[in-house]
Amino acid sequence: MKHNIVIVDDHILIAEALATMINTIPGFDILYVCSTGRELIEKFKQQRNIPDLVILDVQMPVMSGYEVAQWLTTNHPEILILALSMQDDEDQVIRMIRAGAKGYLLKSIKQADLANALVTVMKEGVYYTPQVSRTLSNDYIKKAVVKTELSDKERELLPHFCSEATYREIAAALFLSPRTVEGHANTIMEKLNVRNRIGLVLLAQKKGWI
C-alpha cells in the first residue's frame, strides 16, 4: 500500500526537488505540489485526491503554514502534517505543533533522513528532528514530575508557555518583566524535566494540560 503525499511550498525548485526524492522512496507517491495554501484548500474543496500526508512550508505568502495547518486540522483531522522550514527554530516548532503538525523537517534534509521521517510519521503518527527527539526522550522516558508539583503561579503561567507567544509577548500581556517570565519558565521546565519549550508543549499535550 502506497501513501499519498502533497507538498505545499512557494519555492517551486525546492518543492520539486523534494517531490523527486519522495517519488524514489518505496511506499510513497506525490499526488501534486501546491505553491500556496489557498491552492491546496481549493483542491481539497473539489474533493480530488485527498492525501494521507501534507508536507507544509512554514513561511509562505497569502496563507502562512500555521494558518494552513489550522485549516487542515479543523477540516481534515485525519491528514498528517509535517512542517517544512529552512531553520530549526523553537518558536516556529511550537507554533506548528499547536496548529496540528505531527513533525518538523528542515529543507536541507538528506534523502535517507527524509525516508526515515516519512516511514516514522506514517507508522507512529509523529516525527521530529534529532534535536526535538532528544527533548522527547528526556520528557517521556524519564517521566516528568506531575503538574501538582508546580506552584499556583506556575500552573497559571503554564498555558502561556505552551502558546506560540514569545517571552516578551507573555511579559507584556501579564505586566511582568521578560526576565521574570523567563525565570518562571526555566523553573517549570526544570521541575518537569524538559529541556525547552518544545518539550514543555509536547509534555503538556500528552498529559492533557492544554
From TrEMBL:
<keyword id="KW-0238">DNA-binding</keyword>
<feature type="modified residue" description="4-aspartylphosphate">
    <location>
        <position position="57"/>
    </location>
</feature>
<dbReference type="InterPro" id="IPR039420">
    <property type="entry name" value="WalR-like"/>
</dbReference>
<dbReference type="GO" id="GO:0003677">
    <property type="term" value="F:DNA binding"/>
</dbReference>
<dbReference type="Pfam" id="PF00196">
    <property type="entry name" value="GerE"/>
</dbReference>
<dbReference type="InterPro" id="IPR001789">
    <property type="entry name" value="Sig_transdc_resp-reg_receiver"/>
</dbReference>
<keyword id="KW-0597">Phosphoprotein</keyword>
<dbReference type="InterPro" id="IPR058245">
    <property type="entry name" value="NreC/VraR/RcsB-like_REC"/>
</dbReference>
<feature type="domain" description="Response regulatory">
    <location>
        <begin position="4"/>
        <end position="122"/>
    </location>
</feature>
<dbReference type="InterPro" id="IPR000792">
    <property type="entry name" value="Tscrpt_reg_LuxR_C"/>
</dbReference>
<dbReference type="InterPro" id="IPR011006">
    <property type="entry name" value="CheY-like_superfamily"/>
</dbReference>
<dbReference type="InterPro" id="IPR016032">
    <property type="entry name" value="Sig_transdc_resp-reg_C-effctor"/>
</dbReference>
<protein>
    <submittedName>
        <fullName>LuxR family two component transcriptional regulator</fullName>
    </submittedName>
</protein>
<feature type="domain" description="HTH luxR-type">
    <location>
        <begin position="143"/>
        <end position="208"/>
    </location>
</feature>
<dbReference type="Pfam" id="PF00072">
    <property type="entry name" value="Response_reg"/>
</dbReference>
<dbReference type="GO" id="GO:0000160">
    <property type="term" value="P:phosphorelay signal transduction system"/>
</dbReference>
<dbReference type="GO" id="GO:0006355">
    <property type="term" value="P:regulation of DNA-templated transcription"/>
</dbReference>
